[in-house]
Amino acid sequence: MEEKERNHKLTSASGIPYAEHENSKTVGLRGPILLEDFILHEKLAHFNRERVPERVVHAKGSGAFGKFTVTHDITKYTRAKVFSQIGKETPLFLRFSTVGGENGSADTERDPRGFAIKFYTEDGNWDLVGNNTPVFFIKDPKKFPDFIHTQKRDPRTHTKSATMMWDFWSLNPESLHQVMILMSDRGTPYGYRHMHGFGSHTFSFINAENERFFVKFHFKTVQGIKNFTNSEAAAMKGVDPDFAQRDLVEAIDRGDYPQWALKIQIMTEAEAKTYKWNPFDLTKVWSQKDFPLIDVGILELNRIPNNYFADVEQSAFAPAHVVDGIGYSPDRMLQGRLLSYPDAHRYRIGANFEQLPVNRCPFAVNNYQRDGAMRYDSNGGAAPNYFPNSFDGIYADEKYKEPAQELDSSIAGWFDRNGEGENDHYTQPGDLFRLMTDDEKKATINNIVGAMSGISGEKRTLIINRQLCHFFRADISLGIAIAKGLGVDIESQAMQHAITGN
Ligand code: HEM
User: Fold this and answer.
1) pLDDT tens, 445-467?
2) Spatial distance between the Cα atoms of 276 and 299, rounded to a whole number of angstroms
3) CATH number for region 3-48
4) Pick the CATH number of 61-355 from 3.30.160.60, 3.40.50.2300, 2.40.180.10, 3.40.50.1360
5) Residue 417 C-alpha to ligand 1 middle, in angstroms?
6) Do the annotations mark residue 328 as ligand-binding?
7) Mutation test of ligand 1: which of 337, 339, 417 has the most ligand atoms closer than 8 Å to its C-beta?
8) What is the pTM of this model?
9) CA distances from 152 to 86, 149, 160, 389 (A)
């Protein structure tokens, strides 16, 4: 058979050419369908299995391929090959997302945005799985499922619930910093191209001399910050729920490649011991006055995947996947995420998710993992499946060993995350508010008042007062403006009780 002829023939999944794809095989013109039309069964059965479970968070997303180019030398901080010389290019895949909504939810929801990057480096794939915010709502991973439940649907009404959200935030004052960002117009970015990205956590850098530094990653949008107002975002949900996806695809397809400038903050181990803020607390930022931004390079997106499911839905990112020259830190949220993500991937797309093209390391992968569902590569062929062995010459390279890390304490226990020295939840969010322009302040206050107005039920007053108290502590004028917007009498006994605790 001619190759061209074979390639264009309609076939079953097993490659059997067949002639009829529009009518089922029936008994007579008006009779029932024959069981032997296995193509019909194959088609319906495959269709029934088209979905993989959606991500438990960050279900709605958009992705693109691109590259990272080094523009500045940071080799004194890290030996990571991705940063090894000016001009070096590393291919990458980036997936943006909203957090709380389902796969079909609207792109312009008020929500943080995911900013997950997979750098395909010679030393393996480096995943930096961050958000468009430098901080997060919680500082202990044990709280993550509770927090996310409040962002999803109420178990009875199956609708989003402002009551759940504000109940949780008001009971966890460390959330205030992220709540302030979320409630500003940065909570409704104009698509994905006009927002910054952050690694958010503190990571380690390790240089050629085996010295450790702590590092924060910032990706500054070259397109400039642009946000929707609350009402524009709400209207866009109806006009085009896929606004951000469409915006990204159209920009890249017309050659208008979005870029982000990677900058880092560096803290030495000695500085980390004495810094006024816990440098490993994800609800805090490192002041850029204390730790100025250092230029590193440019990230560019330039290709939309040809198939959304293959590359975007099946992409899998894991904060645990760092490469030589980059390491973890004691940030508890990062620690919690190290095991959680690959566990999610195995559930969502299977034990061999690393072999899917978008996730696969394009360089060497040598290990003794074998078999499992959907193992479609050669599965190691005839090579040994155990280590050590006398045959394949594969060895563990000592030069990839990280330097040992000294920790502050040798006492194990349950420490209060918000205990003495860890309980200033107010200075940084207050500073953020005071840095805003008058228009930004006004929008933030309106957005908060609008969101809190949705709190309902018998605990409404309690929740409002408890949260107002946090806003007051961050900034008196913020507290007063929100109270006024909500029609709360701040002289009332309940409010005084909430503010003073007496
Ligand atoms: C302990 C806290 C956290 C836990 C347990 C957690 C867990 C998860 C899980 C299970 C997924 C779905 C993964 C998948 O099915 O592929 C996910 C996705 C994601 N998370 Fe987290 N998360 C946490 C905190 C964070 C933080 C602090 C950030 C950002 C700074 C973040 C950013 C993301 C992003 C961007 C995605 C989507 C990745 C993608 O595009 O596939 N998460 N998270």
Assistant:
1) 999 999 999 999 999 999 999 99
2) 32
3) 4.10.91.20
4) 2.40.180.10
5) 21
6) no
7) 337
8) 0.96
9) 44, 5, 6, 50
